[in-house]
């Protein structure tokens, strides 16, 4: 079955540590996205990529980095510069102007 | 700036009690309005896409409608399994979606 796989489901980060969230899709979608979700707030766009080897900052890119070396993969690194990283992170993909397909999310907690 | 506002923030219904969720938007050049359902700890699941004012779509107990300024998600005779957070999003330029904060629906039996 086609879909988006996010891993891990739960992730714990120590202060000053970089962590990487994985996102893989086998839908052959061109565009991929990373959103952050906090309680009581809508999904906020971190980064997006419409084609391999190209990506753009979203509304809250500070403290995050991404790469898009393969069409299927769009990993997100949460760096030590992100001061409040505890949140639910969602990866999505889309084909041109159609709606998004979402992964099941990664819950990141600072310990 | 594109904006989406959903109301109410939370809604409690008795099983069988029909109601509507609201999604108001301001966007320059609407290309599509999307409704998603999200269960706790999971990713959003696609429900509907609406493209133009006057359009309506239905799926089981859910019906989505669209005007030039807002969209409604009507829930007819809801069941406890309809309990979830319902998200609205708009697509303007490019492929990016702008989301509202969602409405948390609880249906009690």
Q: Which tags fit this structure?
A:
heterodimer, A: 111 residues, mainly beta, four-stranded antiparallel beta sheet, 11 strands, B: 109 residues, globular
Question: What would a concise description of this structure say?
Answer:
The complex is a heterodimer of chains A (111) and B (109). By secondary structure, chain A is an all-beta fold. Helices cover 0% and strands 50% of the residues of chain A.
Oligomeric state of the chains present here: heterodimer
Specify the structural class of chain B. Answer: mainly beta
The low-confidence parts of chain B are none
Largest sheet of chain B: 6 strands, mixed
Work out the helix count of chain A: 0
Uncertain parts of chain A: none
* Strand segment count of chain A: 11
Number of helices of chain B: 0
Strand content of chain B: over 45%
How many angstroms does the end-to-end distance of chain A come to? 36 Å
Determine the structural class of chain A based on helices, strands and strand pairing. Answer: mainly beta
- The helical percent of chain A reads under 10%
Q: Between the first and last Cα atoms of chain B, what is the distance in angstroms? A: 41 Å
Count of DSSP strands of chain B: 11
Helix-strand topology string of chain A: EEEEEEEEEEE
General form of chain B: globular
């Amino acid at each position: 079955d086609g879909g988006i796989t996010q891993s891990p489901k739960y992730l714990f980060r120590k202060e000053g540590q970089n962590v990487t969230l994985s996102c893989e899709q086998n839908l052959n979608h061109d565009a991929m996205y990373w959103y952050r979700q906090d309680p009581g707030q809508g999904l906020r766009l971190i980064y997006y990529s419409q084609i391999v080897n190209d990506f753009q900052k979203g509304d809250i890119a500070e403290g995050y980095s991404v790469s898009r070396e393969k069409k299927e993969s769009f990993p997100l690194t949460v760096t030590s510069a992100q001061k409040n990283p505890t949140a639910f992170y969602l990866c999505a993909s889309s084909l041109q102007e159609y709606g998004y397909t979402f992964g099941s999310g990664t819950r990141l907690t600072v310990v | 700036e594109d904006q989406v506002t959903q109301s109410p923030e939370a809604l409690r219904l008795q099983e069988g009690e029909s109601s509507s969720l609201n999604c108001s938007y301001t966007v320059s050049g609407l290309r599509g309005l999307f409704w998603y359902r999200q269960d706790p700890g999971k990713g959003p699941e696609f429900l509907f896409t609406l493209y133009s004012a006057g359009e309506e779509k239905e799926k089981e107990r859910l019906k989505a409608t669209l005007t030039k300024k807002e969209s409604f998600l009507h829930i007819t005779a809801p069941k406890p399994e309809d309990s979830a957070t319902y998200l609205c999003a708009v697509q303007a330029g490019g492929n990016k979606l702008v989301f509202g904060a969602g409405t948390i629906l609880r249906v009690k039996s």
